[in-house]
Amino acid sequence: MFCSPRVFYCRCLLQLLQNNQKRVAGLHNTKVSTLGTSNKYEPNRRHQGSPVMALPPPVPEFILRGSGAPVNTLHFRCGDPGPPLLFSGSGKGAIHVWNLTTRRAEKVLEGHGGASVIWLDTLGSRDALISQGRDMRVCTWDLSEGRSDVLDSFSTGSVGFCQCSLLQSSGLSLLAHPGPLTEEIKLIDLASKTQVCSLKPDAKRGMLMCAKLWQPDSGTGPLLLTGHEDGWLSLWDVSQRRPLSGLAAHPEPVMCLDFDPAGGRGISGSSERALASWTLDGQQSLQLQDSVEVVNPGFSQLRVRQDRRILATAGWDHHVRLFGWKRLRPLAVLRHHGDAALCVAFSDHGDPRRRVLAAGSKDQRISVWSVYSDA
């Protein structure tokens, strides 16, 4: 179909302008990104002369629903024969045992009288569970052969928020738990049900907020880290029943901490925006190393992945954040939950391809993420 000279001239001019725009874009290697997506999700390889589209933000592998209350704590057990399991403790006292193959709850355990469950772990196998509730009790469970029985329990006398810390090493099962006094932490031998010691700071540090117990490779006795309401960190020698060192890590209460024994390095978060990284030197002295700030304040929990490559944090701003553990380089912000993220946990599955990260939230959901891929 023929067109007038004026129309033909306009079409040629338009085509010339479009070709010039493409040539300029190619020279400047222009890229197109998705709003809110960081450079982490963009391909490393860029083709000269063509726009580069950013990959979409990550989404959960799947969501576990049915807790019926805020999810306060998570614990994986994937190494035993049988399907991989995820234990979750809720704000209404229920413990859900999730089968990660079927993505359904196999059991719902009720043993804390409706009081919030704030900590979970396993004793040697998936059939021996230990739980801590806001009813001031620690319970041990027998889950073998389909059972759902509380074998034993004892009272901590604590009405605080500090979670227990369990050390299992060479036949030793040592449990650190908050005591009746708000600044006190006690240690008991679970096998004999005997108290090992009671530790309390000399200075007034306020309420005990968090604790981490571990066995050093040096062969000395167990060491214990505690975080306090005034932002102070304390390092204790459990065998000697005495403090080794301390550090003013935060101006606000220490809400959570984790420690990497192999690297001699730890991390703590508070109600403020900053994470504090610190080291433990050869003289068992805590030294502040580095810090990183996020946009919004408040950390509920943080965990260093077993391979010591990634740090995950649960934030009051609903987000789960991932950092490189070596230099605290921000890697990703995982956005899914509609309320505060309360806990995070990395799975312990023997096959790295099946390992995941789980996050529990006040919105009553558990999000499960694949964060082990090289991509």
Descriptive report:
With 375 residues, the chain is mainly beta. Helix content is 6%, strand content 45%. The protein contains one helix and 28 strands. It has one helix spanning 5-28, and strands spanning 62-64, 71-77, 85-90, 94-99, 104-110, 117-122, 128-133, 137-142, 149-155, 165-169, 172-178, 185-189, 194-199, 208-214, 223-228, 232-237, 242-248, 254-260, 265-270, 274-280, 286-293, 299-304, 310-315, 320-324, 329-334, 341-346, 357-361, 366-369. The strands form seven sheets. A four-stranded antiparallel sheet has the order 1-28-27-26, with no helix packed on it. The protein has a four-stranded antiparallel sheet with strand order 2-3-4-5, with no helix packed on it. A four-stranded antiparallel sheet has the order 6-7-8-9, with no helix packed on it. Strand 18 and strand 19 (265-270) form a beta hairpin. The longest helix is centred in the first third of the chain and has 24 residues, at 5-28. Mean pLDDT is 87; it is low at 5-10 and 20-52.
